[in-house]
From TrEMBL:
<feature type="transmembrane region" description="Helical">
    <location>
        <begin position="50"/>
        <end position="68"/>
    </location>
</feature>
<feature type="transmembrane region" description="Helical">
    <location>
        <begin position="119"/>
        <end position="139"/>
    </location>
</feature>
<feature type="transmembrane region" description="Helical">
    <location>
        <begin position="166"/>
        <end position="185"/>
    </location>
</feature>
<feature type="transmembrane region" description="Helical">
    <location>
        <begin position="206"/>
        <end position="231"/>
    </location>
</feature>
<feature type="transmembrane region" description="Helical">
    <location>
        <begin position="88"/>
        <end position="107"/>
    </location>
</feature>
<keyword id="KW-0472">Membrane</keyword>
<keyword id="KW-1133">Transmembrane helix</keyword>
<protein>
    <submittedName>
        <fullName>Uncharacterized protein</fullName>
    </submittedName>
</protein>
<feature type="transmembrane region" description="Helical">
    <location>
        <begin position="6"/>
        <end position="30"/>
    </location>
</feature>
<keyword id="KW-0812">Transmembrane</keyword>
Length: 245
């Protein structure tokens, strides 16, 4: 199941590029989830109570350290290098906890879902905060280089100015490719849940398109992803698996 190797995919895309690796993960996930053996109901997640703290310590903190405005260049380089393997740290923390005997068996389905949904609330809140920070900085700066179009849309003419502009251009395309793939994956997953529950109508697909689009504009693509997966976790609890025709 690709979910078990999500941290491996994430580590690779942090070193190679999310726009290259993440679509492969999305395709693998959709392929695995489409099998009859993938049963969304009655799931139990082992160590689900550890999800939130290990993700905060293993991924959120290293990411925050990387963005901290260090005055020392060595600190910045070390924090960036430390961040590269951040997707693996939560698994490492869980493994160390298991050695210490502090892990827990799979909890009941409702508890597992609540822990997972709590993680989506955190990621959604962080995404909304960063989204509004971007909008505020762009609107308040008065600097044309910080306008939304300059920040989000690659400029073919500017990328040849120097190395910094060239790297920025690469990161812009990486951003667009990453969230384009993620939003498409989110839409496919939502539509698939409607199909599995026997409600795979065209109106549901259109509604999902509108909802994801609105969430992306208001809260950013990360918030749209978190909201969709929060809804999906709730839906999966009460949805029996319908075999594909």
């Amino acid at each position: 199941m690709p979910g078990n190797s999500a941290s491996v995919f994430a580590t690779v895309y942090q070193c190679v590029g999310a726009a290259v690796i993440l679509p492969l993960y999305c395709i693998t996930f959709v392929w695995a989830a489409g099998k009859d053996g993938y049963n969304p109901s009655g799931r139990e997640v082992r160590n689900s109570g550890m999800l939130l703290p290990v993700v905060v310590l293993g991924y959120v903190v290293p990411t925050a350290l990387m963005f901290y405005p260090w005055n020392n260049l060595d600190f910045f380089q070390w924090s960036a290098a430390f961040w590269q393997a951040a997707p693996l740290y939560p698994n490492l923390f869980v493994y160390l906890a298991s050695l210490a005997g502090t892990t827990s068996p799979a909890s009941k389905n409702s508890n597992s879902v609540n822990h997972v949904k709590g993680l989506y609330v955190l990621t959604g809140a962080l995404s909304v905060a960063s989204h509004f920070a971007l909008l505020y900085i762009s609107a308040a700066s008065g600097n044309p280089a910080l306008s939304l179009s300059s920040v989000l849309l690659p400029d073919e003419t500017a990328r040849m100015k120097d190395t910094a502009h060239g790297l920025f251009w690469i990161f812009q395309w990486d951003f667009l490719g990453t969230f384009g793939a993620v939003l498409l994956w989110t839409w496919v997953s939502v539509v698939e849940m409607h199909r599995v529950s026997g409600n795979g109508h065209l109106t549901k697909s259109l509604a999902a398109t509108v909802a994801i689009g609105i969430a992306t504009v208001l809260g950013g693509p990360g918030a749209a992803l978190s909201a969709a997966w929060y809804w999906r976790e709730t839906k999966m609890v009460f949805t029996p698996r319908v075999k594909a025709a």
